[in-house]
Amino acid sequence: MTSLAPQPTGDAASAPALSPVEFRTEPDRYRHWRLAADGQIATLTMDVDEHGGLAGPDNYELKLNSYDLGVDIELYDAVQRLRFEYPQVRVVIVTSGNDKAFCAGANIRMLAGSEHGQKVNFCKFTNETRNGMEDAARNSGQAYLAAVNGTASGGGYELALACDYIMLIDDRSSAVSLPELPLLGVLPGTGGLTRLVDKRHVRRDLADYVCTRPEGVTGRKAVTWGLVDEAVPRAQWADRVAERARELAAASDRPAAAAGIELTPLAKTRTDSSIDYTWVSASLDRAAGVAAITVRGPDTDAPATMDEAAGQGAAFWSLALTRELDDLILDLRTNEPALGTWLLRTHGDPARVLGYDELVTGSDHWLAREIRLYLARTLKRLDVTSRSLIALIEPGSCFAGSLLELALAADRSYQLDGVFEDEDPDADPAAVLLTDVNAGALPMGNGLSRLQCRFYGDDAALQRALDSKGKPLLAADAAAAGLVTFAPDDIDWADEIRLAIEERASFSPDALTGMEANIRFAGPESMETKIFGRLTAWQNWIFNRPNAAGPEGALRRFGTGQRAEFDRKRV
Amino acid sequence: MTSLAPQPTGDAASAPALSPVEFRTEPDRYRHWRLAADGQIATLTMDVDEHGGLAGPDNYELKLNSYDLGVDIELYDAVQRLRFEYPQVRVVIVTSGNDKAFCAGANIRMLAGSEHGQKVNFCKFTNETRNGMEDAARNSGQAYLAAVNGTASGGGYELALACDYIMLIDDRSSAVSLPELPLLGVLPGTGGLTRLVDKRHVRRDLADYVCTRPEGVTGRKAVTWGLVDEAVPRAQWADRVAERARELAAASDRPAAAAGIELTPLAKTRTDSSIDYTWVSASLDRAAGVAAITVRGPDTDAPATMDEAAGQGAAFWSLALTRELDDLILDLRTNEPALGTWLLRTHGDPARVLGYDELVTGSDHWLAREIRLYLARTLKRLDVTSRSLIALIEPGSCFAGSLLELALAADRSYQLDGVFEDEDPDADPAAVLLTDVNAGALPMGNGLSRLQCRFYGDDAALQRALDSKGKPLLAADAAAAGLVTFAPDDIDWADEIRLAIEERASFSPDALTGMEANIRFAGPESMETKIFGRLTAWQNWIFNRPNAAGPEGALRRFGTGQRAEFDRKRV
Questions:
Q1: Which residue does chain A place closest to B199, by CA atoms?
Q2: Which helix (H) or strand (E) holds B248?
Q3: Which residues in B lie closer than 8 A to residue A504 (C-beta atoms)?
Q4: DSSP states of B321-344
Q5: ipTM of this model?
Q6: A21 in Cβ contact with A5 (< 8 Å)
Q7: Cβ-contact B379, B440 below 8 angstroms
Q8: What's the predicted TM-score (pTM) here?
Q9: B272-303 pLDDT, tens per residue?
Q10: What is the band of A13 on the pLDDT scale with cuts at 50, 70, 90?
Q11: DSSP letters along A120-138, please?
């Protein structure tokens, strides 16, 4: 079995002991993508190094621009840099540098050899990256144009589906296809099924046909059925792509002459028991199955203007904090599956957090928008993280405004009523502080603020909470306002937290994941939440079924020359 | 292993050879429920016969009003009869006749001993019944009042959650609880998680707490958290329940003095190769994995008025057809899991179908409403059926109005262009015919008409289809209007259908189920679709995981005295 990540326990004892997967990278180190910007247009060229798989070339070769987690980590990095380092870029052309294919999707040998948890985590990250591309167009004036200059199959076509406009070269052989079902016995699970019908409005019966036809659809028919926006003969290809890019660029509100913010390497120290950045740290308790995360507030007042903030570059607290939190979430999710509970603490001066919040959410500066959207995406990662999230609100904390979202994203929150008498009897008791930032600036995937989702269907309770805006609430008041779950005092605190953690560790990890995935998302669904809820949940089920992952299943048999053998009973 | 249904293939070779599960029953034969009506108020008393389990008392005992499929079949029958046989009933009180519990939910030994497919099918049916109870209040003026006169745990509380008003006896011991996660390592999957947050607006962090606390919540706290509507001391119980029932009844528009329609026993003949009713029949081809279903249109013109129709009782075509189709869907889903493809044909006079449609959908007669709503629920069953549905539209068919919904519910449809030259060269070519009935009278679970869902996001295409209302469309026109998928002629027909069927049989049944569950539901979600999409998909995944269903999993270990052993990795 191939292993993408170290396996502290379980059935992959024979897997090579790999280092933790790192999500930090930069264009100079890319092995699979080229990023080039020319004024308002950037081009992201996929040219996967066959021998550059994350698990090493002995395990699988990334032929035909197929990808693994390592390839997608670079894509994610590029997507992020395009937002921050290239404020002038209005259109990103995604195309292939491989002369045989646009992209063949996730590498099948990689998938077949991955453990269930690795497959699921890989799909989650790839989905988040593609949602981020759509977020760029919808909220940030940076559209993605898929220039499909060869066959796009499976995840390759799903990558195109995540773009805002799809051009397919019309050369009689280049097709778009979703062969997952007929060839592999799994779903087009990287948003494919959902985007076909919900985004591209492909009729369900045509979608059915497309998803069962491994050779896919070419040229005019792909246009007629809505699978692509345009089919272009090779002779006109380059001109037409450039023309469409210019047209898409014209609709953008990105700044013409702003200087980008370089996303300098994150300072990160990782040991077996801790992960530390400048503003974020996590202590890893393997015996208890807990990652104790602390987010620190700014240690200076906010700069007076966004221009001044931009001058601080990647060191600007709001941006630095978000990057670190983002990296930590990805790291823990991928490398520490046995740490099932994350404790979320903050530490710092709430007033300073609000100062930074005001600057970032109260300005129409392009960088302010980018930071706010990045924080929103990062908090959405928390919402779909398959870990129990418990917020601990203690004296010295700064759960205010944007950082209060950490508590609102948590499955439960505990706020100390009073102070720790033995530790610091003179401390100010912990408070939470709601602001306008909590009322819509950082929406969940379903389009609601975490506050709206929390009080879904109970407008009176929502209004009561909103009435507290700007007022620090001590434990009893915060509990009465429904902003925290429990408010134990010093005498009960340690026991209650310990019991909650032990209890969590005693439950079935799968059942917790399923429960959290349901009750975190009260109310409406969006394409994004359907991808993580409906589509992903079905895909995960299929990944677990012998018909896909068993020794005679389609995923394992693919490429062996042997046909899969199916249990024909429908479930 | 306990088996609920015959297993034509698979790993239950040692299971007793049971007869097919029958969904037809009647109050005189109930073993687990008592139905009593008194004017506007009916009482449905659950009093499960411990030794009356479907698989026999040697396999499990239905203690504490726990239930299996057999118990739920009786509940479904009662819910249906309350709609048709008791038009005057405005409120149904659901209560327990067991002196130890209200209801302990699905029987755990039954679940632990069931195959995966049996568990999933069982949950689907129980969910449909509970959705049907909500449909009664929302659309038909018949509210359900849960009179929880003892502890309601797991599926027992979920049964109460499906009611419109929940009263809990306040005796210091009776609780509502969802112990599935802590005790069994599975979810409250019969709508529980979804209804907690989406219907009862229980705050997500409190829902988290409730779902991890096996002992549940009693009395006042259950009211404060929104888990029940009212907690009533024993001394006032009977009076208060009666009072609330009267209040709920006052808001209803059910007729005061209508005579009910007796749901007489369905005439059904079942052999190994066919299932036949009066208007519906299915031929079962086990080699091909196909059930070929034919629905016959009425053989007389519609009666002139609904009163006349009511005089025909259960023989009235619209009602008879719906009952037969409903029973067939349930039978095939439960007893024939290896028949993965259902062919849907109709036969009859389209004009007569429209005549019945007009009577049923154009009248405010209580019976007309009931039949329309029943057909809507039955078509919703098709939408969530894990079989490939292929509509075959041939000369002599009557895919018009309500029966056109069968083709619109299908994953694909084939309409013959022309006639079968060798068979009947003089026949009229097949036509489809759209009417107002297709524009909203029979909504899907997501609230859209099948037509709206089909053309989701493409208003022009929807309008083009609607413009054809009332006009019979031959194959080419129907295909151009997007109402059918393919329109082969006589020369290609047989081969194309054969290939489609063979292809379907060659694919992974699980992947087909997952694909269909996604692309059938373009657009918005509702509580109902979230229960079948998000909640059920996660539950199915968990049912497949060793942490629940493995030999050391929580579901298998429950009651053995041994603790479950979990793989602690989060996925």
A1: A457
A2: helix B234-250
A3: 212
A4: HHHHHHHHHHHHHHH-TT--EEEE
A5: 0.94
A6: yes
A7: no
A8: 0.95
A9: 999 999 999 999 999 999 999 999 999 999 99
A10: very low
A11: HHHHHHHHHHHHHHHHHHH
